[in-house]
């Protein structure tokens, strides 16, 4: 569903995705929330998209983000989590390995 360019996932689909990621990756969303309790639902959403292997371009097709705003959101989240500067790629790498 998320890899289909023409699909428009609903909030119910997002909740199913979170459950699937938690099952497949040792409670991924719960561990991420424990690691960074201040994460917003939008931030969790794009972290889930990153974990599924979607590119920034693909994430933008499923959201209200454009490529620049998504990059900035990733950069800000990395800074909030690690208290240091990092790129959107740094966040992507962290999430993929988390």
Textual characterization of the structure:
- Helix 5 (67-82) crosses helix 6 (88-97).
- It is globular and about 35 Å long.
- The protein has 98 residues and is an all-alpha fold.
- It has helices spanning 11-24, 28-35, 41-51, 56-61, 67-82, 88-97.
Short description:
By secondary structure, the chain is mainly α.
Helix content estimate: 55-70%
Unreliably modeled segments: none
- Class by helix and strand content? mainly alpha
Mean pLDDT: 93
> What is the 3D form?
globular
Work out the radius of gyration. Answer: 13 Å
**Which strand-content bin applies to the residues?**
under 5%
Q: Describe the sheet with the most strands.
A: none
**How large is the count of helical segments?**
6
Give the helices and strands as they follow along the chain: HHHHHH
Distance between the termini: 23 Å
Beta-strand segment tally: 0
Features of the shown structure:
98 residues, mainly alpha, 6 helices
Write the layout of secondary structure elements.
Blueprint: H1 11-24, H2 28-35, H3 41-51, H4 56-61, H5 67-82, H6 88-97
């Amino acid at each position: 569903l998320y890899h289909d360019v023409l699909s428009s996932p609903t909030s119910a689909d997002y909740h199913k995705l979170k459950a699937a990621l938690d099952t497949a990756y040792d409670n991924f969303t719960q561990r991420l929330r424990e690691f960074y309790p201040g994460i917003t639902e939008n931030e969790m959403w794009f972290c889930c998209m990153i974990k599924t292997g979607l590119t920034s371009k693909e994430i933008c097709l499923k959201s209200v983000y454009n490529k620049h705003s998504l990059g900035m959101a990733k950069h800000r989240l990395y800074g909030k989590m690690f208290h240091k500067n990092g790129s959107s790629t740094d966040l992507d790498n962290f999430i993929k390995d988390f």
